[in-house]
Write a structure and sequence with these properties.
Layout (H helix, E strand, L loop, with lengths): L2 H9 L6 H7 L4 H6 L8 H22 L5 H12 L1 H10 L10 H5 L6 H37 L10 H10 L7 E8 L6 E8 L2 E8 L2 H19 L5
Antiparallel strand pairs: 1-2, 2-3
């Protein structure tokens, strides 16, 4: 079996244009060693792959977590696309053994360098996008990230503004926030909920959402923002 066929098997993707696969595996050090500024390497594909990865994972997180607000979604995505995560995916796929490196990069441990492996994964995704389009790219990403994404589905640190609000209040007193459903409006298929959160005998935040849970989360976020900005939780 040819080397590129081995890589394709690991990637679970067959390239119609094998030159894209070769380019994605070509480290910039090769051009530097050859002193050929115009020599093609994987940085442009990495740039493209980064954008595709952001799009695919953003959509997936958005669809899987309807109750997550922008902040937690951004944090979740950042965990998925950081260099360490991408490098670990590359290591699992044994991409390092197939990288095309300069002699200097080879001897200095480039095959297992986190940055090189992360960049190579993004470049490979960029190559998949050019070779097969967005649908193929999405399938490629979700195939290799499914277990990682699944492991993030229950991360309270990513979306627990209600817990954070309670901790914030109890840092200064024994006050516990209470939530009230203010109103429900709209037809059954498109309801809108408004909830308020109260402490110290007054309303400290209000939120709106497509579910009671979402509205309470938004209320907690609003209260946290106002309390932190004021610097005085009792006023």
């Amino acid at each position: 079996m040819k080397e590129f066929e081995i890589v394709e098997k690991k990637l679970a993707y067959h390239f119609k244009d094998a030159s894209l696969l070769k380019l994605a595996l070509t480290h910039p050090s090769v051009a530097h060693e050859m002193k050929a500024p115009g020599f093609q390497h994987n940085q442009r594909l990495e740039f493209l792959g980064d954008a595709v990865l952001q799009l695919v994972l953003t959509q997936e997180l958005f669809e899987r977590n309807p109750d997550l607000s922008e902040g937690p979604l951004t944090k979740a995505r950042a965990q998925l696309v950081n260099k360490q995560t991408l490098a670990e995916v590359s290591r699992y796929l044994e991409i390092g053994s197939h990288l095309i490196l300069s002699q200097g990069e080879e001897t200095s441990g480039g095959r297992d360098r986190t940055s090189a492996l992360a960049d190579a994964f993004e470049a490979l995704l960029g190559a998949v996008y050019l070779d097969g389009g967005l649908a193929a790219s999405r399938e490629f990403v979700l195939h290799h990230f499914e277990k990682i994404i699944a492991g993030m589905t229950n991360l309270p640190d990513l979306n627990n503004p209600k817990g954070e609000l309670q901790e914030f209040l109890q840092a200064e007193s024994q006050e516990t926030p209470t939530y009230h459903l203010a109103s429900i409006s709209g037809p059954d298929h498109d309801r809108s909920f408004i909830c308020s959160v109260h402490a110290f005998g007054k309303k400290i935040g209000k939120g709106t959402g497509k579910s009671k849970k979402t509205a309470e989360i938004q209320a907690a976020l609003t209260a946290l923002k106002q309390l932190k900005n004021s610097g005085d939780i009792s006023t």
